[in-house]
Amino acid sequence: MHITQTPAKTGNRGAILAVLLTGQFMANIDTAVANIASPSIATDLHASEGAVGLVISGYVVAFAVLLITGARLGSSFGYRRTFLLGLAIFTVASLACGVAPDITTLIIARFVQGAGAALMVPQVLSGIQLHFQGRDRLKALGYFSIALSGGAVAGQLLGGVLIAANLFGTDWRPIFLVNVPIGIALAVAGRRLLPADQPGDRDRLDLVGVSVLSAAVLLVIVPLLLGSERGWPVWSWLCLLLSLPMLALFEYGERRTAVRGGRPLIARQVLGHRSVRAGLLAHACTSGTYFALLFVLAMYLQSGLHKGPAYSGFAMVVWVAAFGLAGPVLPRLRRGVRWMPVVGCLILAVGYLSVLGYLLLGGRTGPLLFALLGIGGLGLGISANTLIGAVTSTLPPQYAADLSGVVATNAQLAGALAVALAGSTYAALAQDPGRALAVVLAGFIVLTLVGARAAHRLVR
Q: Given its phi and psi angles, is residue 169 left (phi above 0), alpha (psi -120 to 50 degrees) or beta?
């Protein structure tokens, strides 16, 4: 038996949400912030390009591989306890990153930081599912989506500002050290404000299932992150091929555990539910294009048009602002809420189409490009809020942790796949930056329409 997860009655849900979303925001910032700092890290620590690449990818690898395990631990030991443990690991690892004397220490600390984030992040969505219902949940998910989208953009902006400031001659180190006081303050607030975990029997963690699933995700995420930038060497294709039998082995083990009356790592009811599968596909298609847009737009503006990192970061501010509009607007709607996942996907497609049209008409950059990106931001905000809301409302609260881990892992893998495909496509056409971005945008339009179709299956 696992710890019973039932909606808790709490007095100050706003404070609970603030604590959880701050943790989510911190984790998302650190996904992006090291990209901006990579040249400074290479120079300061006399590191090779490959070693600096591990500083960036090590965090994402550990994060993606351990998300479902983190969610499962939250189910077994309580989301509050697991959130605070993940926060502590993340904060200590951030300190280790900030004072790292060499590149090897920094790489190890980044892996540990990603593991801490993987423990912390699934508890955010679990907490929202446990403490918010109905329109309150939709509103909370709106703020959750802002933390997801805004954190990635804030990472680019914060990295550029802190490195340029060179506080006390510390160069890149403040991008990690800033997490330490925030993490300590958040830990104190979390201990005071997050409701105590409800008592219950603890499951025995399926270590074999954890190992097999972690290996399968690792075999997918590593070649997607590193293979494209290395020209897709043979090892990257071998890893992707090996992931298939590993996933089959995981599925076999999960079935055997369920037949024997044990608790699978992912409850069978989750991935076996038609609506959950449709929602995950739609969310993968839409969120994947967002992660890829961040990557490709930065290449277009910086490498193609020779703009600075700060300019590249500010290019997405309108997107994030429009994204944030969905949070307060959606709960106020009285009619048509059911179809909002489809509407959001279609608006996102229109946003990409408008930017594509701007490029085909000779536009390159400037305020109009940023404004058109805002259409896409609004569409993603609507689709992300309502898709996650629909998926997490499909099953009873005892599946909150399972859904949290699956939704988060699904988004990470979709993002890695989209970045790999879009990045490779852009790089192949990079001699003409406008044409390269236009081709990538055309692919985004196709994906968002596939997402709209999947969303239609979810809501009909």
A: left
